[in-house]
Specification:
mainly alpha; Arc Repressor Mutant, subunit A; 2 domains; two-stranded antiparallel sheet; 70% helix; elongated
């Protein structure tokens, strides 16, 4: 169970720092499958020179991986998204959707409060895990963020 929370924590942390280009690359790898750097660049409408550092960054962070093969004129690395990359992409999309889409008008205050409470619960659990690992600074950040969300969920609605 702890591994699930650790994976969720890692994905959430990555999701908060992922760039739009990195997100588009991960989406392309998820939606269209593994690809050579040139193919990935074409999928996201960018030049291969622009995508190469993005792929390396994703690889360094464990979000994408490259498998070498015999080689071709188009390259010798086949890139794919990792399980952490998939989780990070889902978390990034959820964060982006939550920040741009207004809540449904019918039950907006309850839904928003419930959503904020769920996120606060997750942050509290992440804080507990960080504390068990001995990382009290990270634990304090999680707890402070959870407290802020709880306070926000209890604010009276301005509707």
């Amino acid at each position: 169970m702890t591994n699930i929370f650790q994976a969720a924590a890692a994905a959430l942390e990555q999701a908060r720092t992922i760039t739009p280009t990195e997100r588009r690359v991960l989406q392309a790898l998820r939606d269209r499958g593994p690809g050579l750097p040139l193919e990935v660049a074409m999928r996201v409408l960018a030049f291969p020179e622009q995508i190469a550092p993005v792929l390396r960054s994703l690889q360094e962070r464990g979000l994408a991986r490259a498998e070498r093969f015999g080689g071709s004129p188009l390259g010798d690395e086949l890139w794919s998204v990792t399980p952490l990359g998939l989780q990070t992409l889902e978390a990034a999309q959820a964060l982006a959707q939550r920040s741009v889409s207004p809540p449904a008008p019918a039950e907006a205050p309850r839904d928003v409060a419930s959503s904020l409470q769920q996120e606060a619960d997750l942050l509290r659990k992440l804080g507990e895990l960080a504390e068990k690992r001995g990382d009290t600074q990270q634990a304090a950040r999680y707890y402070e963020e959870a407290l802020g969300l709880i306070r926000k969920s209890r604010e009276p609605s301005t509707d």
